[in-house]
Amino acid sequence: MANLTDAILPRPSNRTGNDRNIIQKAAILLAVLLAVAAIFAPLLTPFDSLEQSLLSRLRPPLGFERHAPGHLLGTDELGRDVLSRALYGLRLTLALAFAGAVLGLLLGGLLGLVAGLRRGWVEDLVMALVDMQIAIPFTLVALLVLAVMGSSLTVLVLVLGIAGWEQYARIVRGEVRRIAAQPFLEAARTAGSGPLYTACYHVLPNLISPLVVQFTLALSNIVILESTLSFLGLGVQPPQPSLGSMVGLGRDYMPTAPWIVLTPALLILLLTFTVQILGDWLRDHTDVRLRDR
């Protein structure tokens, strides 16, 4: 009878889980390689990213006719090495995205913590700001701010920092309200713990796991936002390379020199993909509620 049941209703295999683990491991390895390439870009680049050579402009990558010696991925419209600019662009894009994500984490985490611990009008005000942030398309807000205040790196980091703070605020507020109902927190208050001590030593340690996961997931969104702003000419300004600005400057040469756009576009795709997979992996290994599934 058991064999007949197994024949009609076969047991679910773990092949899907194994395939997912393989994808996650490959994504983690790729993320490490991208991070190493960004950190050690000055040592890996064969040429200066700003060095121009008009006699070698628009040369194709290795393996094509008219290839310029030493330029593995070809040259751009000013004769600059595409590989060198892509590595430096990856470095700058990652640095801006990481700085913006950290700023958003601090801002959103602080506001969410205040909203969760201080009920009443304080919580209503924070949640009203969260609703406004969600309702208004942030790309339009970022374009307006950069058009008015300029496209310096400081302003760009501030814009990227306020891009996703509402997600942190909602997560922290919800977790704080859940933790506030736990017996250990009531016991700490009964023992005489003040609000600041309670927040630092009892609430914050329980928020690390969801915040780390949200940080990795938000990082890919900030990478796309920075690339979009640079593509539109309001992000990183020439001649400093970023992945988005390289795509924006090379779009006019797509019919004749597609390698100028394909290299940074592929890096953006790989970067966002690996960060998203890394976020899923962290969620699977840090969320206690998912371990028994």
From TrEMBL:
It comes from the Bacteria. The keyword Transport applies. It holds the Pfam family BPD_transp_1. The keyword Acetylation does not apply. One of its GO terms (cellular component) is plasma membrane. It is a multi-pass membrane protein. The chain crosses the membrane at residues 22-44, 92-114, 134-163, 256-279. Keywords: Cell membrane, Membrane, Transmembrane, Transmembrane helix, Transport. It is found in: Cell membrane. InterPro entries: BP-dependent_transpt_permease, MetI-like, MetI-like_sf. CDD domains: TM_PBP2. Residues 90-279 form the ABC transmembrane type-1 domain. GO terms for biological process: transmembrane transport. Belongs to the binding-protein-dependent transport system permease family. This is ABC transporter permease. It comes from Paracoccus alkanivorans.
